[in-house]
Write a structure and sequence with these properties.
By secondary structure, the protein is an alpha+beta fold. The chain has 3 helices and 17 strands. It comes from Streptomyces rishiriensis.
Length: 229
C-alpha cells in the first residue's frame, strides 16, 4: 500500500519508509515507497524534486496502478531495491513551498474572479507561467479599455490582499465520493490534488499585472512566493 503523504502535510521534508514496489517505466528503473512524499506533475502543478536513499528521482503517476513512481533522474541508475526494504525519502522543500504558494495563490485569485461574476476557464500554476483564465458570462464594459482592465485587476488585488491579511486557513477533506476538496475558508472550495500553504498568511509577494483579454478569455497572470518560515 502507498500513502500519498504530501496530501496530509505539505511541509514534511523527509521520512523513513519502505519500498512498496519496483519496476521499469519506459525502460527506466523506478521504485514506489509506502510513505510517499513526492507530488507528481498534475493539475497545473509541476512535480517535486526528490531523493530515495540519496538517489535523485522524478515522481510520475502510473495511471494503471495508481502508484506514484520514483523514476531515476537524469540518466542515473537506481540501486537494486527490494520490496520491503527500509529507505529514506526526501523532497526539496523550498521547491515544494514555491509550488504550494503558487497553487494556493491561484485558488485565491480564482475566488476573487468568481466574486466579479467570472467563470473559471483554465489554470496553470507553473513558476514563470502562472495564470488563471476566466470567461465573463455578463458583458463587463471595464474590460474594453486599458483603464478599465486596470480597474478590474485592482479589484482582484484588493480582494487577494484582504484575504492574505486575514490569514484565512487552507484546509481539505474528502467528500462522499472520495474526492479531495480544498477549502480557502469561506472564500473557495474545489476538488484539487495539489499541495497548498497552511494558510493564506503564508503567501508573500503576490503580484498581479494588469489582466489581458484574448479570444474572449480574461487572463490573469500572477506570481507568488511562500513567506520565510
Amino acid at each position: 500500500m502507498q500513502v500519498p503523504a504530501y496530501y496530509a502535510d505539505t511541509y514534511e521534508e523527509q521520512a523513513q519508509t519502505r519500498v512498496a514496489a519496483i519496476g521499469e517505466h519506459d525502460g527506466t528503473p523506478w521504485v514506489a515507497v509506502e510513505h510517499c512524499l513526492f507530488h507528481p506533475q498534475g493539475g497545473g502543478q509541476p512535480a517535486d524534486r526528490g531523493w530515495v536513499d540519496g538517489h535523485e528521482i522524478v515522481p510520475v503517476r502510473d495511471h494503471d496502478s495508481g502508484l506514484i513512481l520514483a523514476v531515476a533522474c537524469g540518466g542515473t541508475a537506481l540501486p537494486d531495491f527490494s520490496v520491503g526494504q527500509p529507505v529514506e525519502v526526501r523532497i526539496d522543500l523550498p521547491t515544494r513551498l514555491a509550488h504550494a504558494a503558487l497553487h494556493t495563490a491561484g485558488h485565491l485569485i480564482e475566488a476573487a474572479g468568481r466574486a466579479q461574476g467570472w467563470v473559471l476557464a483554465a489554470n496553470n500554476h507553473f513558476p514563470g507561467q502562472a495564470r488563471i483564465e476566466f470567461t465573463a458570462p455578463t458583458p463587463d464594459a471595464r474590460l474594453d479599455t486599458p483603464e478599465g482592465r486596470e480597474e478590474a485587476t485592482e479589484a482582484l488585488r484588493t480582494e487577494v490582499a484582504k484575504a492574505i491579511a486575514e490569514d484565512l486557513p487552507v484546509t481539505w477533506e474528502n467528500d462522499a465520493d472520495g474526492r479531495r476538496i480544498v477549502h480557502l475558508a469561506h472564500l473557495h472550495s474545489a476538488p484539487c490534488g495539489g499541495t497548498h500553504a497552511r494558510s493564506l498568511g503564508d503567501l508573500a509577494d503576490v503580484v498581479l499585472p494588469t489582466l489581458k483579454v484574448k479570444k474572449g478569455r480574461l487572463r490573469v497572470s500572477y506570481s507568488a512566493t511562500h513567506r520565510e518560515r
